[in-house]
Design goal:
The chain has helices at 3-14, 24-37, 41-57, 61-71, 76-88, 91-99, 108-116, 130-139, 143-156, 177-183, 185-191. By secondary structure, the chain is mostly helical.
Amino acid sequence: MDVDEFWAVVESAGAGLYGRTGDDDEAIAAALVTRLAATSSERILEFQELFDQLHDALYRWDVWAAAYLIGGGCSDDSFIDFRAGVIALGREWYERVLASPDGLADHPVVRKSAAEKDDGALFAESVNYAASEAYEQVTGGDDDDFYEAMKAREHTAVGIDEAREPDMGEDFDFDNDDEMRKRLPRLAELFLDPSEG
């Protein structure tokens, strides 16, 4: 599976779903499981490898700050779910977030969550587990089998440097409203109280 095929699967799963219900992530995850389970165990593992690479690329302070604003705070675990939610938006939005997380201020779901004071937008925990669920369906195994298969692939991959730390960019204080307004002005305008700062 190449990156174009990966995005085709993600976008077909999410087609028309985001913004329709409060459980968009569950619906998208279920659609992903269905699409992946119609392939092979090998394709599912390839999908997960690409998912992990794209997920890791979002592991940056500025993306975390966007999640912090949208979610009214964001723990380590919640940031994992947020990054899955960004991937679930599809390639165009993913690339926009990589270029500038503040661009999420244009997404209709984000704008709606700001207007409704809903702090759950884009936090898609279930999407993280779609490949493992599909793998279980295809192989009849359990999630331990999936993670063992993924671990075996990591050991055979060439050029993987497990000790390498990701470049998260410059760290800054998410609780400093002035700093957030400077770095993510459009999201800050949507989510921060204008009387504070």
